[in-house]
Write a structure and sequence with these properties.
This protein is mainly alpha-helical. The protein has eleven helices and no strands. About 65% of the residues lie in helices and about 0% in strands. The protein is globular and about 65 Å long. The termini are far apart. It is found in: Mitochondrion inner membrane.
Length: about 250
C-alpha cells in the first residue's frame, strides 16, 4: 500500500491515494488490499495463520483486522479494476467453499469461511457500497458470538463438537443456529445480505455471476450443516465418564 502511494506521488506530485493515475499503483493497491482481506488468490496465509493462533487472536483477525482494508477498498474501489475485484470475489467464494470441505480443525474452517464471506463483499463492492458494508457487518456480528462460544467450550476440532452438550445444551443450540446463519440458511440473519446481493446482481443484469455465487455458496453451507449435525445430532464414540456440567450446581 505504501509502495503504491509512493508511485502515485511520483506521478501526480501529491499524497492522495484516492486519485490513483498510475496503472501499476492501482494494481499494487488492489493486490495489497486483497492480501490484507484474505481474498483469493492471495489467501494462502490466512488458514495457516489462524491455525497457529489462539481463538481470541483468531477473533481479532477475522473481525477487527478487516475494518481498515475494507475502508480503503470502499474509498478506492473506483480507482481499481472492477473486473479484477469481481473475479477475486467470485474466486474467493469458490475457494472458501472447497477449502472447508475436508477440514477437521475448526480454526481452518473459520478461515475458509472468512475467505468466502469476504468474497461476497468484494463481489458486490463495485455495485453497491452499502451492500458491501452490510455483508461485512453481518459477518462480524455473526462470527463474534460463534468465536466466543468456541472459546467458552474449548472446541478445537470437529470431534470436540460431539461433547459440547455436556457443557451447556442451550449454548450448543445457539452455536448450531449461528453456524447455519453463517451458511446463509433462511430465515436466519445470514441469509439477508446474500439475498440482497443476489437481488442487486440480478437487477444489474448480471445473472451468470449471481448464479455462480448462489451455486458456490452451497459448498460453504454443506460444511456448516456438517458441523451443525456433529454438534447437535451426534454423541462422542466413547461415553463420557463425568456428570454433565450443566447439571451441576455452581
Amino acid at each position: 500500500i505504501l509502495f503504491a502511494s509512493i508511485m502515485n506521488a511520483q506521478t501526480t506530485g501529491q499524497w492522495n491515494i484516492l486519485q490513483l493515475e498510475n496503472p501499476l499503483a492501482q494494481t499494487l493497491l488492489t493486490v495489497a488490499l486483497a492480501m490484507k482481506l484474505g481474498l483469493a488468490p492471495t489467501h494462502f496465509w490466512l488458514p495457516e495463520v489462524l491455525q497457529g493462533t489462539s481463538f481470541k487472536t483468531t477473533l481479532i483477525i477475522i473481525t477487527w483486522q478487516k475494518l481498515a482494508p475494507t475502508t480503503l477498498m470502499l474509498l478506492t474501489w473506483n480507482q481499481t479494476s472492477m473486473l479484477t475485484i469481481t473475479t477475486m470475489g467470485t474466486l474467493s467464494v469458490l475457494i472458501g467453499g472447497l477449502g472447508g470441505l475436508n477440514q477437521t480443525q475448526l480454526r481452518k474452517i473459520i478461515a475458509f469461511s472468512s475467505i468466502a464471506h469476504l468474497g461476497w463483499m468484494a463481489t458486490i463492492i463495485t455495485k453497491s457500497n452499502k451492500l458491501a458494508l452490510l455483508n461485512l457487518t453481518m459477518y462480524i456480528l455473526i462470527s463474534t458470538p460463534l468465536m466466543l462460544s468456541l472459546i467458552f467450550t474449548s472446541m478445537k476440532t470437529t470431534q470436540d463438537l460431539t461433547t459440547t452438550w455436556t457443557t451447556s445444551p442451550l449454548l450448543t443450540t445457539l452455536t448450531m443456529m449461528t453456524l447455519l446463519s453463517l451458511g446463509g440458511l433462511p430465515p436466519l440473519t445470514g441469509f439477508l445480505p446474500k439475498w440482497l446481493t443476489l437481488e442487486e446482481l440480478l437487477t444489474q443484469n448480471m445473472t451468470p455471476l449471481a448464479t455462480t455465487l448462489a451455486v458456490t455458496t452451497l459448498l460453504s453451507l454443506f460444511f456448516y450443516m456438517r458441523l451443525s449435525y456433529s454438534l447437535s445430532m451426534t454423541i462422542a464414540p466413547n461415553p463420557t465418564k463425568i456428570t454433565s456440567k450443566w447439571r451441576l450446581k455452581t
